[in-house]
Description:
The protein is mainly beta. It has helices spanning 2-16, 175-184, 277-281, and strands at 46-51, 54-60, 79-87, 98-103, 112-115, 125-130, 140-145, 151-157, 165-167, 170-172, 194-200, 207-209, 212-216, 229-233, 240-241, 254-260, 263-273, 288-297, 301-307. 10% of the residues lie in helices and 37% in strands. The strands form four sheets. A nine-stranded mixed beta sheet has the order 5-4-7-8-19-11-16-14-15, covered by helices on one side. Strands 3, 6, 9 and 10 form a four-stranded mixed beta sheet that branches. It has a three-stranded antiparallel beta sheet with strand order 2-1-12, with no helix packed on it.
Amino acid sequence: MRRTLSLGLAPLFALAACSDDGGSTPTIDAPMVENPGFVLPTAVTKANQETGGAWMEIGDANWSCLNTPSADQPSTQAIALSGEVRDFQNNTGVGAATVTAFPGIMLSGNSGMATSDNVAATRGDFSMTLAQLPAGTTRFGFKLEATGSLKTYLLNQYFDPAAATQTRNISIVSESTANALPALVGINRDPAKGVLAGAMRDCDGNEVSNAVATVSSTQGSVTHLTGARSYYFSEDTGLPARNSSEPVISPNGLFVVLELPPQTAPAFIQVWGFPTAADLAMGAAGLKLLAELASPVEGNAVITGSIEPKRM
């Protein structure tokens, strides 16, 4: 089954090898590529840590938990949550932001609300009560809205159900950043389209490099959403780069998929890569699905998530 799936990816990579740099105009005789940012990695996945503002590779990524049963425990109580709403780009506190928690990926749900402080000393600080999750759901999502910012969602957030008081900071994307980041890779932002983004981490919680990401309409296999374009963030600037500069995920683990048509049915954020040298030696047939997160796509909004190894 795994080999059949992997072989099915080979034509996708054959096309990607003929793609442009993700920001320039393709030549007339070049084939139209489903996602020019989804190419075959040339190395095994690596684990990375940030030290003193610089990223350092610490060895092969740990995939020992991949495809094992989830360690999530069921929700058992309400949680008192506090934290800070921060600007994604400059990390400063964002005041008067509305924070709404919801169960799973139910974007319209409400498991608690708060408004962040808007005074200088505590700007961005918030506190709220997270309602106990319904049976069968172990992860929260958050919706953030503020003047001058794009509606931003954060998915796949796990809280220890045994701890009644917890903290977590949440980032929101400003409208200026939302307009500027696509320009860095040579495209103009279409407000009618959606954006999905994340940071890939391994079983130890370290950021993963040498993998590729996409958004698929099918679970467990690659069927790129129409128009999907994957880009990866430079480890030096912390900004998205053209595919010619960053063809795969860099040591900071960050990726973004742009130009997605809105849909209420779940799409699937996927990360693929080679866990071992033996997998790499097999080429496309050895590529493994490392992470998969279901998510809707909403126009004029950014949906982010904690991207973790795929569990059963």
